[in-house]
């Protein structure tokens, strides 16, 4: 089995899900300590430095509640605990209510610190599910509405009291609600894409890990065959000597059976030894045309059974044909793209290699429906979906085409780019004919002896 074959189906890779909540309790507690410090400093400066009257007892009580909450959470769970979405939502909802209480005591929306109501929403959008974020944003909108209507006077000079104009308060209320909606949507989108990228890279690493495990098993099998060869030869020799001394009969039949099974074991060990030589061949340097021929060979039978033809060509524009190391990243990346082309082609698949003194280019093309034009610039992104998948219709490019999860293309693109390649996806004709052009600087392939996956 070649690396291209063993890694050709990324969907079969066992997937390890990420943690349900990446936010640690220590992070929430630390943010709350910062809020406590900032709130305490602000109240002390306003009251004792600026000389404005404040309900100190009520403000101190609200801040003390946060102190007690932090201490209770640390004692109950410990800083390394990862709260579920429900507990995380409850904590952030408390932070909103606590800040809303302080704003009620210090002037409502006229207080410039009302902007801090956006902070819990941004934390929720980056770490909690969308449902909790929507609920928290709704709570902030309710708090903003209440403190706009009901609040104690804004701390100010008693000799010249200041009351914010109603239109100013209305503007603050509208801007706060717009900010909540924008931050919640934007932060949630960015965090979601980041989590998808992490998931896709995890699958990529699992693909290479599986191939490394298979390679290690090949080596272990060959070593075991070598170690078992000597005792098996001893058994065979002893069995032959005993067979000569045993007369024909039931015991002789048993000795013949032993010799037959020993011969069978030798044949099996011979196959295991061949794995070692095959494994060595995988990592030798070969020409580019030999590499694409090897990668196409496992798919020729499948293509022929579907009435499709794979053709290969090479074009020399200067310089000798590149000789490269067939590392796992290169084999899997190209092999997966060839497999996609075979799957989506109508009648033929063309694999061409060209080179000059500076660059090496491999082009994989098929006569299938092509890539959706609206997604050409996004091909290679993880978990890319289209209207076919959203509407439950059949995607013309198959279950893992541009309309599927897109992990196969993402993994192939990621691995090939790590070898120094640049990929370009395009349609050769207006009605389809997908093409993938993979190009390397010649010196990048000359350095292919390096580890393909750092």
From TrEMBL:
<dbReference type="Pfam" id="PF25323">
    <property type="entry name" value="6TM_PilS"/>
</dbReference>
<keyword id="KW-0812">Transmembrane</keyword>
<dbReference type="Pfam" id="PF02518">
    <property type="entry name" value="HATPase_c"/>
</dbReference>
<dbReference type="InterPro" id="IPR050980">
    <property type="entry name" value="2C_sensor_his_kinase"/>
</dbReference>
<keyword id="KW-0418">Kinase</keyword>
<feature type="transmembrane region" description="Helical">
    <location>
        <begin position="55"/>
        <end position="75"/>
    </location>
</feature>
<keyword id="KW-0067">ATP-binding</keyword>
<dbReference type="GO" id="GO:0000155">
    <property type="term" value="F:phosphorelay sensor kinase activity"/>
</dbReference>
<dbReference type="InterPro" id="IPR003661">
    <property type="entry name" value="HisK_dim/P_dom"/>
</dbReference>
<dbReference type="InterPro" id="IPR036097">
    <property type="entry name" value="HisK_dim/P_sf"/>
</dbReference>
<dbReference type="GO" id="GO:0005524">
    <property type="term" value="F:ATP binding"/>
</dbReference>
<protein>
    <recommendedName>
        <fullName>histidine kinase</fullName>
        <ecNumber>2.7.13.3</ecNumber>
    </recommendedName>
</protein>
<feature type="transmembrane region" description="Helical">
    <location>
        <begin position="28"/>
        <end position="49"/>
    </location>
</feature>
<feature type="transmembrane region" description="Helical">
    <location>
        <begin position="135"/>
        <end position="154"/>
    </location>
</feature>
<keyword id="KW-0547">Nucleotide-binding</keyword>
<dbReference type="InterPro" id="IPR047770">
    <property type="entry name" value="RegB"/>
</dbReference>
<keyword id="KW-1133">Transmembrane helix</keyword>
<feature type="transmembrane region" description="Helical">
    <location>
        <begin position="111"/>
        <end position="128"/>
    </location>
</feature>
<feature type="transmembrane region" description="Helical">
    <location>
        <begin position="166"/>
        <end position="186"/>
    </location>
</feature>
<dbReference type="InterPro" id="IPR004358">
    <property type="entry name" value="Sig_transdc_His_kin-like_C"/>
</dbReference>
<keyword id="KW-0472">Membrane</keyword>
<dbReference type="InterPro" id="IPR005467">
    <property type="entry name" value="His_kinase_dom"/>
</dbReference>
<keyword id="KW-0597">Phosphoprotein</keyword>
<dbReference type="Pfam" id="PF00512">
    <property type="entry name" value="HisKA"/>
</dbReference>
<dbReference type="InterPro" id="IPR003594">
    <property type="entry name" value="HATPase_dom"/>
</dbReference>
<keyword id="KW-1003">Cell membrane</keyword>
<dbReference type="GO" id="GO:0005886">
    <property type="term" value="C:plasma membrane"/>
</dbReference>
<feature type="domain" description="Histidine kinase">
    <location>
        <begin position="223"/>
        <end position="444"/>
    </location>
</feature>
<keyword id="KW-0808">Transferase</keyword>
<dbReference type="InterPro" id="IPR036890">
    <property type="entry name" value="HATPase_C_sf"/>
</dbReference>
């Amino acid at each position: 089995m070649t690396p291209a074959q063993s890694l050709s189906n990324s969907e079969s890779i066992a997937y390890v899900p990420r943690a349900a909540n990446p936010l640690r309790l220590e992070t929430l507690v630390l943010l709350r300590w910062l809020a406590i410090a900032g709130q305490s400093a602000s109240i002390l400066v306003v009251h004792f430095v600026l000389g404005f009257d404040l309900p100190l007892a009520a403000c101190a009580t609200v801040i003390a509640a946060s102190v007690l909450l932090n201490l209770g959470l640390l004692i109950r769970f410990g800083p390394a605990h990862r709260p579920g979405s429900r507990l995380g939502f409850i904590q952030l909802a408390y932070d909103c209510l606590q800040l809303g209480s302080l704003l009620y005591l210090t002037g409502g929306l006229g207080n410039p610190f009302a902007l801090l109501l956006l902070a819990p929403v941004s934390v929720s959008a980056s770490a909690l599910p969308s449902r909790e974020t929507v609920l928290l944003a709704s709570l902030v909108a309710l708090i903003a509405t209440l403190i706009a209507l009901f609040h104690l006077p804004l701390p100010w000079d008693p000799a010249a009291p200041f009351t914010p104009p109603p239109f100013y308060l209305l503007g603050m209320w509208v801007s706060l609600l717009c900010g909540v909606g924008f931050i919640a949507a934007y932060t949630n989108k960015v965090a979601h894409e980041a989590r998808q990228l992490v998931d896709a890279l995890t699958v990529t690493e699992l693909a290479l890990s599986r191939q490394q495990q298979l390679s290690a098993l090949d080596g272990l099998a060959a070593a075991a065959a070598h170690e078992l060869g000597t005792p098996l030869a001893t058994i065979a020799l002893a069995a032959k000597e005993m067979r000569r001394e045993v007369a024909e009969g039931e015991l002789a039949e048993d000795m013949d059976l032993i010799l037959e099974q020993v011969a069978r074991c030798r044949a099996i060990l011979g196959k295991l030894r061949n794995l070692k030589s095959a494994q060595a061949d995988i990592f030798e340097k070969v020409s580019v045309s030999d590499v694409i021929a090897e990668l196409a060979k496992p798919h020729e039978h499948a293509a022929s059974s579907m009435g499709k033809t794979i053709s290969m060509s090479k074009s020399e524009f200067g310089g000798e044909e590149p000789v490269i190391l067939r590392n796992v990243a290169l084999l899997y990346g190209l092999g997966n793209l060839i497999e996609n082309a075979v799957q989506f082609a109508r009648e033929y698949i063309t694999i061409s290699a060209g080179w000059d003194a500076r660059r090496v280019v491999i082009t994989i093309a098929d006569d299938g429906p092509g890539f959706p034009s609206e997604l050409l610039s996004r091909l290679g992104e993880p978990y890319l979906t289209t209207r076919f998948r959203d509407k439950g219709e059949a995607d013309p490019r198959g279950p893992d085409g541009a309309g599927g999860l897109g992990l196969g293309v993402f993994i192939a693109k990621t691995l090939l780019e790590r070898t120094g390649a640049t990929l370009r996806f395009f349609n050769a004709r207006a009605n389809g004919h997908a093409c993938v052009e993979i190009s390397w600087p010649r010196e990048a392939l000359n350095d292919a002896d390096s580890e393909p996956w750092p």
